[in-house]
Design a protein that fits this description.
By secondary structure, this protein is of the alpha/beta class. It is built from 22 helices and 15 strands. The two termini are 39 Å apart.
Length: 502
């Protein structure tokens, strides 16, 4: 299987080339030339597989130049029980009296966020891809983060030979726990830099660096090449497809659904990577009825699915679900390429319009194709807070602010549609990563997190919920700060050069 650019670059690439490069030479995103499928017999076999085995099978469909034994070696290492516990991504029935709602807990990895599922595996795929391509240059993983990708990438690539990793994050756009996780990261090859601005400023700056031919030539002359750990990198996105396949198989083997019974999938999303992974799972053969795209107050995706116009020219809001505070959803480009029948010219026109004017509008046929599969909705901070306590009261289950967005949008969808299909909620982060907002919701007006020490709030959340504090969250305030650089967005390129070319 070869990979092509969403913008029509005239060369095809191997999977390993796509993983190493991260982004296509013309600025497009890599996608498989054709989308594979999983056979009925393979689905049946998965009922007796562990998560690492299901993941390896899914990966083998997309990464044909890797042997199945190679991939199984990588998934077993990435999802080791010491890092994840006995169940890598538990699928939990929320209430024994309600067999419609199931929560897919994706945050049991080292940094307590769903990004770990991909970013514990990506370093294995990256180093193997470097061997397969014969690339000898040092690789710099260059990443922008809205909070979770950064720490997960740092943990994955920390002290990995032949690599450097640079993470840019918005100075005031992440939670206290997310910030502390990043700036206390150890490792000789790790670099964490705050950017004055929002996530879109950091992400746009990173894309600009990737697209700067002169700058990349300078790096190449110094024996360095750039790659990405954001979901623009296919090697980051493809591992996420596996957990949606797993969730369907798990429901089936537990006899919660029959073979081929359609399910709904609810995903809180900002950059569109996580829900796009669910769409790819559907193409593989998972019987997905509706993909419910849940946005916060920065509702650019919600508006797009309603109108067909993507417009980032709007007020940007800092919310209590900061990992979704995004106005440029990069992975939407991949979906548009697929639903237009691989019309690279049209996709390029739309992306150029987004870059120049901050918006684009798709044609009616494309919008109709999107609306057939996706349902969009958004929740503001009040709705998020209310939903946290509603879910807690109804199920005794504590969810974080991002997962709450998903429940909020689904509840309204269910009320108006009466859709009784079994539904999987992607739970993207531990509630402890956003403890102040979660405790404000649970305790109500009597509890005010402002001015309280984050460690105290986390301890109180543990006492309230009965949940253990994740290892990746414990004692963050006691760790030394190792990264304290803060720059303006215009300084990002020079900062990368200064770090790498010493």
């Amino acid at each position: 299987m070869k990979y092509v650019s969403t913008r029509g670059y005239d060369r095809k690439f191997t999977a390993s080339e796509a993983i190493v490069k991260g982004i296509a030479p013309d600025g497009g995103l890599f996608v498989p030339e054709t989308i594979p499928t999983i056979s009925a017999s393979e689905f049946e076999e998965m009922k007796n597989m562990k998560y690492c085995e299901i993941s390896a099978l899914v990966l083998s469909k997309f990464l044909e130049e890797f042997t199945h034994d190679e991939l199984l070696e990588y998934t077993r290492a990435a999802y080791d029980e010491e890092k994840w516990g006995e169940d890598t991504v538990p699928l939990v029935q929320l209430n024994e009296y309600n067999d419609r709602e199931y929560i897919l807990e994706l945050w049991h990895g080292p940094t307590a966020a769903f990004k770990d599922v991909a970013l514990q595996l990506l370093p294995h795929l990256m180093t193997a891809s470097l061997r397969k391509t014969g690339e000898k240059k040092k690789i710099c993983i260059l990443t922008a983060t809205s909070g979770d990708t950064g720490k997960a990438a740092l943990e994955g690539f920390k002290d990995l030979p032949g690599t450097e990793i640079i993470v840019f994050y918005p100075s005031d756009g992440v939670s206290e726990a997310q910030k502390l996780q990043m700036i206390t990261t150890t490792g000789k090859n790790t670099h964490v830099v705050a950017v004055n601005g929002c996530f879109d400023d950091a992400q746009t700056g990173v894309k600009k660096i990737f697209g700067d031919e002169d700058f990349n030539t300078k790096l190449n002359n110094a024996g360095i090449m750039l790659s990405s750990a954001n979901s623009i990198n296919w090697g980051r996105l493809v591992p996420q497809i596996a957990y949606y396949v797993y969730s369907y198989v798990d429901l089936w083997r537990r006899e919660k659904i029959s073979e081929g019974e359609p399910i709904n999938v609810v995903v809180p999303t900002g950059n569109f990577g996580n829900i796009l992974a669910a769409w790819y799972a559907k193409q593989l053969g998972v019987p997905v009825k509706k993909l419910i795209c849940a946005s916060n107050k920065n509702k650019v995706l919600c508006d797009f699915f309603a109108t067909g116009t993507y417009d980032r020219n709007r007020e940007f809001f800092k919310t209590n679900s900061p990992s979704m505070d995004i106005l440029i959803s990069s992975n939407l480009e991949r979906l548009l390429y697929e639903v237009t029948g691989h019309n690279a010219d049209r996709v390029t026109e739309w992306m150029n319009s987004l870059n120049k004017d901050g918006k684009y509008s798709v044609d009616p046929a494309t919008l109709k194709a999107l609306q057939k599969q996706f349902v969009g909705g958004f929740a503001d901070e009040t709705g998020i807070t209310k939903t946290i306590i509603d879910v807690y009261d109804r199920t005794d289950h504590v969810i974080d602010t991002h997962t709450s967005v998903g429940f909020n949008i689904y509840n309204r969808y269910h009320q108006r549609s009466n859709d009784e299909a079994k539904t999987i909620f992607a739970s993207t982060a531990s509630p402890f990563k956003f403890a102040p907002s979660v405790m404000d919701a649970i305790r109500g007006a009597d509890y005010n997190s402002d001015g309280k020490d984050n460690a105290v709030i986390i301890k109180e959340l543990s006492e309230e919920s009965g949940l253990p504090i994740p290892e990746g969250i414990k004692d963050l305030e006691q760790k030394p700060v190792l990264h304290n650089t803060c720059i303006n967005k215009e300084e990002m390129t020079q900062t990368v050069y200064d770090i790498l070319v010493k």
